[in-house]
Amino acid sequence: MRKLVVTALSTVMMVAMASMAFAADGPSVGMGISALGMAIGIAIAAAGCGLGQGMAIKAACEGTARNPDASGKISQSLILGLAFVESLCIYALLVDLILLFVKL
To answer: Is 34 exposed, middle or buried (0-12, 13-18, 19+ CB in 10 A)?
Structure first.
């Protein structure tokens, strides 16, 4: 049920933000609405990445505490996973910057 709700809410957010991103240039649209959409988009991406990284670090600490001999493999997997999670936030920033400079 939770997965369905999250999927539905994320779909609604994407549809709502797409109208701001693809809005026609004109005097009534301005940069304010587009900037608001970009700010909300990067905020959601940063919050999701922060939560994901926190959960990954928590799991790695628990795994190391339970099995100290496997700390090398856990650390290696943790660093690789954190790099992948951080790249998602960087991609969101890149999309926001592209939208910002296309709107100018």
So the answer is: buried
